[in-house]
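the two lines:
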Amino acid sequence: MSLTETSLKTSETPLGRDDLAKLVARDIAPGSFVNLGIGQPTLVSNYLTEEQNITLHTENGMLGMGPEAKGDQIDGDLINAGKIPVTELPGASYFHHADSFAIMRGGHLDICVLGAFQVSATGDLANWHTGAPGAIPAVGGAMDLATGAKDVFVMMTLLTREGASKIVDACSYPITGVGCVTRAYTDKAVFLIGPDGVSVRETFGCTLEELQDLVPVPLKAAPAAG
Amino acid sequence: MLNFVDSVQDAVAGIKDGSTVMIGGFGNAGQPFELIDALLDCGATDLTVVNNNAGQGEQGLALLIKEGRVKKMICSFPRQSDSWHFDAKYKAGEIELELVPQGNLAERIRAAGAGIGGFFTPTGYGTMLAEGKETRFLDGKWQVFETPIHADVALVKALKADGKGNLVYRKTARNFGPIMAAAAKHTIVQVSDIVPTGGLDPENVVTPGIYVNSIVKVAGSGSAAEKVA
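prediction for all of em together
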């Protein structure tokens, strides 16, 4: 334990959504096949470089998805999982839904990036349903992504509007997948989740000690270059 | 037996009350709007509908739900910003919902078409959508038993058919079409173009004609572009 470690702080302020997306994009290994979830994770695509040679998968049936379509590029038959019109890149491929989910479920995707309500200390993910009475449940591909990709990255703010940590000992919301999250990128820190518990790779605008005051699970500093 | 029919009305005429109907499409892409409109007009009711969603806006599946023809939806993502007709029926307790993770939905449909009696998958394990289902520890993971989804009828939109009923699709509008065509007892396809037998490259056929029963040409239905706005 090195809770006095302060060299983890890589930014004097919490990260905004775009800076967080930039950080996730930088961490994706060259040549990866990646699925970006709906919402905040979609921002990551803005920061992937040509040199990284990343292939984006969209679960409605395409590899090689390009940027959002604008103006006369818009084609109603070419949309992403969020039903937003997109473009195709050279080398793209189309396939039916069972094949698209076989790509996911068969462990062929390197990384998926998802939003979350909560992530537990053992990597359980809650991101599909608040469980509130009267809420209409809708799951989409969230459970397939959570269990199928080799690495599951989460992007979220660390705290709820009420100030509660979204990194929790055990999820209070209905879970999406068991022990599936490997990293959580938040505005205040990057958390690595493994068999040894939760470690912190870097912090933004706070020290590890200050972070520990916010998060109800034991934290330790990750070894360098984690 | 493959039939080429002259109208969407003729194509759906045999659909009976109480049928399970698979409807292709993901959002509006690949949704066979004209066949759904004809199904609405033909009056069939008490339907179980299988689709990824539960209708958007004021068209297609959303209208079928609005008019009270659907007693049960089997889908993965019913709740959307413009799914108000489903939302209202659900909150009024007038429609049953079987919520299925999207990959399980696709694989259960595929299983039906492939004659598979069920399969184990890690998707959903430990979640409320797997409650009450058989689980086994297989291949190093806990897995959940899922059963096939069969249907009486599938309504599918493709780009082109040839004289043998072979189909090609367009971009992400392909989505559920090929697996639904195989899973249903009777598959009805709307296409924007019918080409002579031999007019499709056999290497590029996506759905072989053996899965197709009725084909109807619907002019201008090749792209969902006009449905986006």
